[in-house]
Each structure stands twice: as C-alpha cells, then as structure tokens.
Amino acid sequence: MGVLRALRGFFTGVGARSGPARGENGGSVVGAVPAAITTFAAVVISLLDQLEDAQGGRAEAYRQLESVLWGDESDLQSSVAGRAIALAAQDLRVAQDTTAAVRMAASDVLVALARWHLHDVVSVLQGHLQALEEMSVELVLHTLHNLAIRYALQCVPFAGKTLAALRGVLSTAGSSRMLCAVCGVVEQWCSGISAYLRQREKCDFPHLGAAQLCAPVYSLVCYAGRSWQSCKEEEGKQAMLRAMAVMMGVLLHAEEHHQHAWEQLLWLLHQYREVQDPSGVTRSLSYFLWAVMDVQAQVPRAKILAVIAAVHEQLCDEMEPPSPGHRAELGHCMVLQARICPEETIVFLYYKLRTGNKVDRVAAVEMLQALVRCDAPDVREKLPLFTKLVQSVCHDPAAQVRKAVLRFLGELLHSSAPGCSAWDVVGHLFGEFSRASGRLATGKLSVVEVWEERTVQRLCAHVLGSLDVSAGAVAKLLWPRLLQYVVPAEYTGMLVPLCRCLRALAERAERREGEEEKAAPEALKPAEPAPLPAPQALLARLLVVAAVAPHTGGGHGAAALQLLQVLCGTIHRAVGASWATEIPLLLQHLAGTTAGFLDRAEWDSLLLKFLRASLEVIASEAWTVELSRELSRQLGGSPRLSWEKRFLYKALGTALAACGCLRHVREQTLQHLEATNFLELWEAQGIVSVVSRCAESHFQLALSSVQQFTGTLKHRKQSHALRNRAARATLMVIYGRMALRAPREQLLTHVERDIVGNVLQLYREGCQDAQLKLSLVQSVTEISLAIQAADAGPRFELCCKRELLQMLLEVMQEEPQESPVQPRALMAVEQLSKLKPRLSREEKCSLLAQCCRGVVCLRHPEQMEARGEAAAAAPVAPGVQAPSLRALGQLMRTLLREEPAPICFEDVVQVLRHWLASAEECERERALQVCVQLLGAHEEQREHGRGRACEQFGSLAGLLGPLTCDASAASRWRAATCLGHLLQIGAETTDVAPCTNEIGYLRERLNAVAPDSLLATSTNIAKLVCKHVPQGQAADFMDTVMESLQCTRPVRAWAAGRWALTFLGDCGEQIFQEEVPELVTILCTCLQSTQQSTRRCFVLRAMFILARCHQEPVIDSLLQRCLPMDSNTVEVWRSLGRSALGYPILERLTEKLRAAGDSSQGSECCARELGSSQAALEPHTIIRALCEMVSVLQSEGLVQHLLPDLLPSLLGQVSETLREEMEPSLREPESSDTSGRLFVEVLELVLSKCLEERWLRLLREQGAWASLAEPQAHSAGVCLLASVLLRAELVPPRLLQNLSTWLDSCSANLRLTATAFFAELMKDRLVEERKLLKPLLEAFAARARDPVSAVQQMAMRGLGNAASGAPVKLQRHGAAVVAVLRGGLEDGASVEVAAESLLALAKVLGPLVARAIGSAFEEVTRSSRAFWGAPARRAFSLQEEEALRCSAFTLYGALAASASASGRRSFFSREVEASFPSLVLHLGDPAPAVRDACKMALHRCAPFLASERVRRRVAASTGLSAAELQDELCRHLARDCPALLESLCHMAQSCCTGSCQAPQEAAVRILGLLMNAAPDERPQRQDPASRWGARQRQRCNRSPRARRAAAVGTRQPGAAEL
Question: What is the pLDDT of residue 439?
C-alpha cells in the first residue's frame, strides 16, 4: 500500500482514456493513468509490482490496471502480459485473504488482457476449469462469459476445447447457480459459433468447417439431454433450455446432425410439460425456428405439425392462460412456422376451424390474427386465404369465437389488407352488435354471458373506430351505408365510432371538393341510389341520443351533436349558420361537466331551447308538422320507462309550441290526451310535459283543450274508474304546470276561476287517495309559484288561500307519516304562505309547530323496508325529505320574517330536543336540518331580541355538541352549522366574538372518517362554544351533555364526555356557586345510569374538574348524599383521591371531621370558621369519604403530612363513639359499642399509609385495633398506638399540640385518650428533648384529681413513665411526683388507680434517691405493706386484690433497691425483719404474678435480713421458682431459725382467719408445709395434735382453692422424709 500511495503521488499530470473498468459492485470506474511514468508498459509493470507487494487495496490496483489496459491501444510485451495473466489468474482462486472484489477485478483484467493475448487468457481459463473449487469455477465461467460477449468471433478457434472443458464442469455442477453459469457460457460461445458460421467470410483467421465446430456442440448436446433429469430447480431448467436452443441452432449448420436436431426438437416440445414457466420453452422454440428459417433446412412434416400442435395447445390452455408476452411469442412462432411450412400451417388451422371445439377455434383465429400482423411478403400474399378461413366461423354462436373474429377483423382493417371488402366488414360489425343487443335484451343471460356480450359490443365499436375511410372507393360505399345506421335505436352503442367515420367522410369530401369537382361532382353519393333517412328523423334521433346518454359510451352526446353539425346541410339549409354557433356552446357545456355532475334537467332545457331556436330559424310550418309526427312515431317505438321516452315527450311539446298550425296543435293535444295511459307514471308525466310546453305559446288553446277533456271524464264508463282516477290526478298536475308556464299577462285572469277552481273540483269529485292528494299538493305548489312569478302586486289576493291551507293540513294529518305526500304538502304550504292575505301570529305558530312535527318523525324508505312496512303506493322519489326540509326552512324564514316569534322559537326548540336525542339516525339528521333552518331564521330576527340572552343556549349547545361526532357526516356538518348560528345569536348579549370563521373551518374537518380526528375537531369546536354559554345555564348544558353520554354509539358518547370536560375546564370558574349542587347531582345520576368504564371515566373526570373549581360546594354536595354510601359515590371519592385534588380534599375533610368533633363536644370555634351547615355534617359520612380517599391515595407523604390533624380527629371520633366513660367499675360487662369500629378501621387505613409493615404487624399482633374499639381496653389501645408512633418517629409537635387540648376537655373520653397517649409518650426521650416534662407533669398532676378513675390511672402511669423518658430532670420534681402518687394510695382511690400508683412509685424510685423524697420514703414503705393483705377500705374482687398485691410487691422491691443506695438502711432493715414472714407467706400466693413479684422483692430484701444463713439461702436460690423457694425456706426455718418459724406460723394463723381469699390460700399452703416438718424441730409449746386438728377443720371449711392449697402442702416431698 505504501508503494501504491507513492505512485499515486506521481499520477497528477497525465490522464488516460476511460475504459470499461469495473468497481466493487460491477459498475464502471474511470481510472487515472500515472503522470510521471511515461510509457504504457512501465505503467503496467509498476501496477503489477504494486499487486505483488501490496497486502491491501488489491481491488483498487486491479481497477487502475484495467483502466490502463483499456485506455491504450498499444500491445504489451509477452513477458509483461504473461506476468499480468498469471497474477490475475492466481487471484481467481479462492484464498482466505482474497476478497470477492479482488477476484472480480482480476476477472475484468483478464478480459482486458484478452484483447491482445486471447490465446493465453483462454488457455489459462481452460486450465482453471478442471482444478479449482466451485467459487473459482464460477469466476472462470464469468470471465469466459464476458470473453464470449466481447470477442465472439475471435473465440471460435478455442470453442472446441472450451466446450469440452465445460462438459466436465457440467458433470460436476452441484448447484443451480453453477448450472446457470455453465449454461450461460455455453449459450454465449455457441451464439458466437452461429455468428461465425453465418459470416465466416469476414473473419481473418483460418476458416473452420461446420462439422469441426458442431462436433463438440453435438457431444455437449447429447450429454445435456441425458443430464436433464438431474436438474430439479426451475432456474436451472430455464438456463438449460436457452443453451439447448442455441446448441440445436448450431447443429443445423451440419447436415449430418439434422436428425439429432429434429430429435432434440421433440425433446424441446416435451419441456412444456416439465417446466413451470412455458414462456421459456416458447422463446427457445422461437430461436430454433428462426435458425431453421435462417439455414433453410427442410423440416420433416411430422416435426412441423408437432410444433404447430404444441403452439396451438399453449394458446388453448384454459387452466393457465398464457400471459400477453407469452401470447405474442407464440404468435411469432406461428409466423415462423407459416413461413417455413405454409401449406401444413394452413391445413392445420383449417382443420381446427372446422372440427375443433370452441377453444381450438379461438386459438386458430388468434393464430391467423398473428399472421395478418406479419409484414413478410410471402405471408401477406396469403391474406385473402386467411380471410376466407375466418369467414367460415363468422356465424359461430360462441362469444369467445365471435370476439376472436372481431379482433381478426380489426387487425385486418388496421393492416389495410388487399382484397378485403369494407362493405362486408361493416355489415358484420353492425350485425354482431345487433346480435349482442338482442341477447342482452332478453334478460335471460348469466352474469358471465352478459359480460361477454358487452365485450362483443365494445369490440364492434372499437373495430368500427379503426376503419380506414381514406380510399375513395371505400368512401363512396361507406357514406350511405353508415348513414342508415344512425336512426335505428338498436345501434346507439355504435354511435360514437359511427359519427367519427361519418365526420371523417364529410371532411374528406370537403377537402377533395375542389379537386374532384369535375371528375366526381357528387362524391358522397353512392353509385346507385340508396334510401337515406329523413331529415326530421335524423334530427329527432340525434337530439334524443344527446339528451339521454350525453356521457355514456365514450361520449354519445358529444358525438351526436358533432354529427348534427356535420349533417346541417342534409337536415335543412337554413340552420347551418345558427348551428355553427349554438352546437359548439352545447359541446362546451357538455365538456365542462361529468356524468355524475351533469344537471339532466338543465341539459334537457338547453337541448329543447336549441330545438325551439332551430324551428324558428327553419320557419316552415310543414317541416315542423312533419317533425312533430316523427317525434310521435319515435315516441310510440321507444321503450317503456326510459329517459328516451321522457325526452321525446318534452321535444314533442316544444315542437307543438313552435308549430303555427293551431288545428294540428289541438288535434295532437287531444289525441295524446285520449291515447295516454294515465296508469303509467311515465306516460302521465309525458302528457303533462306535452300540454304544459304547448301552453307556453298556446295558453288559451291548451287550457280549453284540457277543460274539454276534463268535461268528458264525467261521461266515461264506470269500468274505467281506475283510469279516470289517474286521469283526474294527472289533470290536476297539468293545470298547475300550465299555470307555471303560462304568460304572466294571461295567468292572473284565469288562475282563480279556471285553474284553481278546476283543481278543487277535480279533488272533491275524485276518490281522495294518495295519488290524488299528491297531485293536489303538486298543483297548489306550482300555482303558488306561478302567482309569485307573475308579480301580482299588492291588490291581488287569493281568496281560497285559507281553504287550500286547511286542505293541505288535512292531507298531512290523514296521510301516514311515512307517506311521500306529507313532505310535498309541506312545500305547498311554504309556497302558499307567501301569498296574500297574510296569516295571523297564532296561525303561523300553529302551522309551524304542525309542520315541524310532521317532518322530523319521517323515516327513510330503506328503513321502511327493513322493518317490513309497506311502501307508499304514490309515485314519489326516495329523496323527497330533503325538499320538504328545505321547504320547512323557507316556511320558518317567511313566518318569522313577517313577525318576530320568540315564543314560537322556544316551542319548536322543545319539540326538536326529543328528535335531536333520538336513537334513529335519520330522525336526528332531519331534526338537525330543521334546527339549522330554525336557528338561521331566528338569527335573522336578532334585532328583536338584542340585549336578551337566549334561554335555550345552554341546552341547545349541550345537545348539539356531541352530535358533531354523529355516525352521519351530514348530521355532523349540520350540528356544526347549528352551533355557528347559536354562537352568532349568543354573541348579541356578550362581548365575546362569535368565532364563526373558526367554526366554519372546523366544520369542514368533520368529514373525516377516523374517530380520533372527529373527536379532536369536536373538542376544538367545544372550546369555541363553551365560552359563550350564558351564566346560569351551566346545569342545562351539563344535563343535556350527560344525556348524550348514554348514547349507544361510542364516538358520540366520547364526544359528549369531551364537551363536558371542555366546558368545566374552560368555564368552571364562572359557574355560580348555587349551580354546583345541581351539577353534582347531574353527574352522580349519570354515573348511576352508566355502566361502561370509558364513559364513567368522563363523569369522574368532570367531577374532578368541578371540584377543582368549586371544591367546597362539591365536597358538601357529596357529603350530603345519604348513607349507606352507594358504589357510585364510593367511586367518586376514590377518583378524587387518585387525582391531584386528593390531598386538598383530604385536608378539607380532615378539617370538617375536626369541626364535626368539636361540634359534638360543644365547641363552636371550628363551627364558626367553616359555617354552621358544614359543622353539622354527619361524621360518619366524612369518615366514609376519608376512608375511600385514603385507600387510593398513592403518596404516603401526603398522609403523613395530614397525620397531626387527622389522627386526633379519628381518635376523637373513636373516643366519642364509646358513649360512656371508659371506667370498668361503672360499665356493665356485656355493654359493647361497635359504632367506633368504623373509625378504628379508617384509623388503621390511615396509619397503613404511614407506617412500615413491621409496625402494622406489631399493632395487629398486640390487638391494638380491637382495644381501641372496646371501652374497657381503649386506653391500652391508645398506649400501644402511641408506643408504635414513637418508635416509628411519627409524633410531630402539631400532633402533640392538637392532643394536648383534650387534657382539659369537658369530655371524659377525650381526657382519657389524651392522658393515655401522653402517658405512653412519657417513656420516650422525646419529652426531654422537646421540654415537655414540666407541662406534662403538671397536666398529670391535675388529671390525678380527675373524677374519672380511668383518667387518674393514666395520669399515674404517665408520672411513672417519666422515670424512663426524663430520669435526670425528674429529680427536680421528685417530691411533687411522689406526693401525687401517694395520693393515689389513699382510701378514695380505685383499685386501678392504687395499683397504677404503686407501679408508678416503683418506677419513680429508680432515678430518685431516698433523700430526694425525704420522709415520704417511710410512708411509702408502710403504705406498700398495707396492700399485701386484704385492705379494709372496701371489698375487692379477686383480680383487683391480685393487681394490688403484685403492684405492692413490685414497689417494695423498688424500695429495697432504693434503700440500699441511701441512708435508709437501718429503717428498711427493721421493715424487712417485720415483713419477712409475709414475704415468705406470699411466695405461695395463688396468683403467678404475685408470686414472681414477691420472689423479686424477697431477693432485693435479702441483704437487709439479720440472719446470715437466711441471706445466703435466699441469695443461693435464684434459679428456684417461688414455690420451691418457699419450700426451701420453710425447711431452713424449721431447722435453723425457730424464731422466724414461729413468726411465720403466727402470720399464717392470722391470715387463715382473715377475709382475703388469696392470703388464706397462701397461709393454708405454708401451714401444710410446716405440719410436715419434724416434730422435734417444732416449737414445744405448741400441741401438734391440736394444730393438726385445727388445720383439718380449716381445710374442710375453706374454699376449694384453699382445700387444694392444703392438699398441696401435705403432699410436699419433705413430709415423707420428716
């Protein structure tokens, strides 16, 4: 690479010519020749050095070398060329370090080197074919392929050896890719051989014989034929076919190989059955046939017939028809066959045409068509023979054959073949067209057959259009022949090409008129006279075609008009100038419209005006009379129920109007009236057109003729009653139409008597069925329009106006709502109301209301059929509703314009609301149409209501808004239009612009189909409309919107939801506070009736937005809903809890709960802050709301932030719901208040959002929640709760501040809750840190005097817990604390208070020294001993006695610990000596807790005993239980301390006689132990027998527990030993 870069540094001055170098992707690369190296050989050598030395960039170096080789014409030295060839050939090998780009570049270099050293290159490549891997072989094949392409003739000398080598490669080809490569090389080399054999004289190397060149090809062909079966893939088969065709073409050059070539030809034909794509076989066959024709070989007849049959079979394949390309290739094969063996080809085709089936005949005709396309002279000279062959199947009944024949004729005409008769072709074309039209007219064909016959018609027209009329003889024959096909109606479909031919003939005649005037002055006339159609017939027919089918058949209307312009001289000389001006205008109008947008009535009117103008120009009475007769004749021959017949009636009326012969006009009018079948709708409408158009010029004559015919109806037979009924209805329409077309000056004098009078008479005399009513309505409408158009002036009044109006209203009432009579009657009312005299205001309102109701509730005919209802028998088009709605709008405008009627407007709005919310789509659509008209009319009268808000604005906006997403696009558009009108009306009373332009822009976007786009557009409209809703109408708006939310169509329901959200979001702040409760009720009601989750989300979102704007009223409205709270209200609270308003609402609910609690306590401070109504809210409702909101609140920090306010409120409610003071002594055991459990559950839920799971689990395991809900355990539950909150660090100062107010509350329950909480708080260092010790001690001192004993108990506990929370600072207040606790030991205190005081003293004595409490130490000591036995103050229960004893012993132990560290040792030693018997006695107390406390106290008092042995014995018994220790001490005392034993006996005897049961049991037990002692160890002054007897009597007299204790004492182990 370094060398290459160095060379590139020199390549700056000299360039080289660009050559076909290849890039990495095979594209051409332009290289640059080095500039500093001046010779061609030096450049090549330098690049070769780079290739030998370079480790990278070899592909680029090869491209440079290739560019150099192609850029210089000099020859390389053999040594340099050999070096280059060797290097490139080496890189063709597949090596690990050689890329595909390098190998491809090396191949291109070899191709470039072959220009001078082809022999060397080919030799190297031939050697590579046998020694390399598949990839290298592919590159070698690629190189050989390129060599054959570039040096085709030069490679021929090497073809033998190369093809032999390729045979070896072919035998080892393992993949389809390799096979394709080999076949491609074979194909190119054999093509070169064929080219050489055709032009060997031009080659400069020694000539090679055909046999010599064909030998290796023959060998390869044989081998390829044998190895064909091993080829499985389609790609390989196609490549093999191409190669085989070329090789077979080579074999044709050697006569000795012809037989093998014919054998391979059969093999080739056989491949049609083997390959998937037969077009490849056809291409190979075409190449071989071309080679046969090129060498002019004699093909055996059997072989050529086999080829013809194979080609024919491919054309006949119906399972897999050949593609257009394949079909063209097959035609080429057929042409080659015909040129090689024409006789065999013609015989074969003739045989197939005569004896073959339908498919064979079609294929044969197609093959003949291919032969006609051929320009070869030997083929064209046989065209007459081919034409005769096709003529033999011209009358074939098969549609496929007929189409094939037509295509053949088209090709024949296009080729201008000699000997073909144009006359015969034209006759056959029109005959086939007529034949197809006849078959189609039967109506008995299948869908496929109909399609085929129409295809035949299109082919006929196409072939006629390709007819060449340039020949003079042909033109003379064609003009009269073609002109005869213009008038017959059956050839209308051929009119476009027919007109083209006739125009071409006429133009040709005009061009040659001057040249051939002397030779042939009448060129357009046939040689013999031929009957031509009459001018009137041509005019009538062409006008009918132009009117009936202006855009069909490729432009029949334009063709007919153009032909009229050409035939102007033939029809009448006078119309030439006028038609030259008028017909282009008609063509211009026709060109500016399409079939879907052409107004047929306007087009008919233009054509009739053209006819009237033409007749006026002609000005010939005879000519016009003949035209009217021709129109009558064509009218009789036209098909029923056709537009052609309808236009002929109009044209006939126009001709009669232009006719000056009044007698003929009267005769024609009466004749047609008599001949008309009034039962046929089209005939009835036709006679109306004839008479009414005749009245334009002959009003008096037409009116008298109709009156004459009307008079004859009375004398007709009853057998024609049905026809007479139809005639009356038609005559009523004729009177109205004549009034509409009558001259103004003649109308007003005849309208009331001769026209309206006759109409009313016909209506009264006839059977008033639907048809007669419809005729009456139509007649009144047209008469009203005629009077308005006549400009009657202020003096003209229609006297029978009210009679006609009443008659029309009766018709509307009598006819069913589905009848088409009703909408037409509405149009008649609209037109009649414009006439004078004017109606009063009441009449207008009544009329308008009836018309609105009649129009809106109509149904479409499709719905009538779907519901099984019978359609109306009257001849009414399905779309009559639209005109009726327009008429209603016009009626409203007319009535409201004359006199403002806001009351009428509001009444109509109330009626429309029902229909706008209808479930039927068509009803909503018509209601919207009426609403558009109503609002538009009301907007026009805005000056009458200026300054006054529209009271229906809110309800209408809420109703119309969701309809912008209706299923019907028309309904959406009309809803937006109504909103635009509504905004314009609302803008009159507000300062906000109406935004009508924005509404119009958004209305156009409602045509979208995607629901998302519709919803987005509807939301944008809502943003414009909602800000115009007047204040005070929010409830009306939301009520109607929420009604639309119940719609079954999802998109409309979603639109309703978005409108509600948009209104609340944009206008929520402007809503009056008084409307909020009603809005909340509307939303909750909608939520109850809505079950779909998506729609409920809209309601909940609306509630959120409303709460965001008006939080306080929404909360109050929701809280005022009745308990128990239903699921919908629960969902509302939860949705608010999940929203961003969760914390503010929760905070507000907390305040309300606190206010409710304060109100229940008698405190009115919060009630004054929040209002009396809010303070009186039910706490249970607030609690339920709190519960639902906290349950869904996601953030724990929010609840923690509210905990200081929320926890006191909940605890206060729990406390208050217990109802009674929580003092066990005053409560009945069975009383249980469960109302507080709800508040406890909420409290648990709140704390679950703040505490970790371990703390919650601790509360559950210790039963804190159950304790809080039970009166007797409430204080314990509060203590547990406070303990957990302290450990979880959830006791903020605000919580303590809120709870501290309860310490002085008038409610005993709150005082107890607060005292218990603070009592537990005293255990924590928090008291000392926040300097709460002194105030809390003072509060506990005050609560120690509380009238409620439970509060006193908690106060004593709090004082005792101060020793844990602030042990150091407690010493400052030691005396005061002890004094308070001593007060709890007084006679008036309850057991709980006394026990708690004893325990508190035990806790306090720890941090306090004896000197700190002074003389109180001795009093406390004596007081504690007083509780060991049965206090004499009052009777206690067993549990109370046990609690007192346990507390007393605990305190005594604490006193012993305190006395040890103070100067009270002597005093306490005396106390211990006196109390030792009691301590030993109570070691056997029946209460386990008392025994344990006594044992602990005895251990602490042991250092104060005088006896050393007893001290040691007590100290050594730490591992013994209380009973074991008592037993041990009794034995010891019996052996070593008789004095103490005696004191113990006296103590036991005194306890036995006492009233306290527990000491009795202990005394009995210890006496039992003493009785089991040894006799010599007992005191001598006691009589053992008497003592034993006394003990037995006591056992019998005591309680069961005492008896058990005595039994236990006598069964001690020591008794047996002693």
Answer: 82
Other Cβ atoms less than 10 A from the Cβ of 416: the count is 10
**Which candidate, 1296, 1298, 1190, places its Cα nearest to that of 1243?**
1190
Q: How many CB atoms lie within 10 A of CB 1282?
A: 21
The pLDDT tens digits of the residues spanning 705-737 come to: 888 888 888 777 655 778 888 888 899 999 999
Angstrom CA distances, 1387 to 556, 1048, 1427, 1432, 1433, stand at 129, 80, 11, 9, 6
> What does the alpha-carbon distance between residue 323 and residue 313 come to, in Å, rounded to a whole number?
14
Tokens describing residue 1287: 């450990």
Furthest C-alpha separation in the chain: 192
Report CA-CA distances (Å) from 1345 to 69, 1354, 1394, 1397. 124, 11, 13, 13
User: Around Cβ 50, how many Cβ atoms within 10 Å?
Assistant: 24
Separation between Cα atoms, residue 951 and residue 956, nearest integer Å: 9
φ and ψ of 988, to 5 deg: -70, -30
Q: What integer pLDDT is reported at residue 1392 of this predicted model? A: 78
> At which residue do the structure tokens 């080739």 appear?
268
Model confidence band, residue 133 (pLDDT cutoffs 50, 70, 90): low
State how far the Cα of 1564 lies from the Cα of 1568, in Å rounded to an integer.
Answer: 6
**Lowest-pLDDT range, 210-219, 1303-1312, 1589-1598?**
1589-1598
- pLDDT tens-place string over residues 933-991: 778 777 777 554 454 567 778 888 888 888 888 888 888 888 888 888 888 877 766 55
Q: How far is CA 97 from the centre of its chain?
A: 56
Task: Answer yes or no: are the C-beta atoms of 499 and 563 closer than 8 Å.
Answer: yes
First to last CA, the chain: 121
The span from the CA of 382 to the CA of 1600, in Å, is 146
pLDDT tens, residue by residue, 800-852: 888 888 888 888 878 776 677 877 888 888 888 888 888 777 777 777 777 77
What sign does the dihedral 1273-1274-1279-1284 (CA atoms) show? positive
Q: How far is 919 from 1177, CA to CA, in rounded Å? A: 43
3-class state of residue 791 by DSSP:
coil
Bridge partner list, 29: 21
**1262 Cβ partners below 8 Å, 6+ apart?**
1280
Helix (H, G, I), strand (E, B) or coil at 1499: helix
pLDDT digits (tens, 9 = 90+) for 443-474: 788 888 888 888 888 888 888 877 777 655 55
Q: Which residue has the tokens 């037995």?
A: 1592
How is residue 123 written in tokens? 């030799």
At 1563, which amino acid appears?
A
C-alpha gyration radius of the chain: 61
Q: For 1154-1188, what is the HEC assignment?
A: HHHHHHHHCCCHHHHHHCHHHHCCCHHHHHHHHHH
Beta bridge partners of 22: 28
Tokens read off for 1391: 């057991």
- Tokens found for residue 675: 């001949």
CA atoms within 13 A on the CB side of 983: 24
CA 1363 to CA 1360: how far, in whole Å? 6
User: In degrees rounded to 5, what are phi and psi of residue 1553?
Assistant: -90, -5
CA atoms within 13 A on the CB side of 276: 6
Contact residues for 167 (Cβ-Cβ < 8 A; gap 6+): 216, 219, 220, 223
DSSP-derived secondary structure for 389-406: HHHTTTT---HHHHHHHH
**Averaged over 111-140, what is the pLDDT?**
74
51-85 burial, b at 16+ Cβ within 10 Å, e below that, comes to beebeeebbbbbbbbbbbbbbbeeebeeebbebbb
CA dihedral 711, 712, 715, 720 (to 10 degrees): -120
The number of residues making up the chain comes to 1618
pLDDT for 1597 equals 46
Three-state DSSP at 28 gives: strand
